Amino acid sequence: MEYAFAIMTFALGAGLLLYALSLSKGNYNNIMKSWATNPPDKEKYAKEFGKTIAFIALAPIISGALSLFVSNIIAGVTLAVLLILFIIIGVGHMKKYL
Question: Residue 61 and residue 79: Cα distance in Å, rounded?
């Protein structure tokens, strides 16, 4: 149970990276309808959305790696801060492609 946080955050990061890999191939249909917009170039939008999701996936991976060396509380706070920061950066990046 000592490594449960690390395992779960690595699994979350891996799942997001797999989703980002699918999007990076230009599969616009893999974007959930509630997240989708009507961009002029759907394939380019899907690729950029995939890059953004891959960037956001770094937050749980970094936090999981950190939890192997420090307490889970510090790693959890790091996860929350990184998620907020990476989502804000990702939203700013995606505004260019609408």
Answer: 9
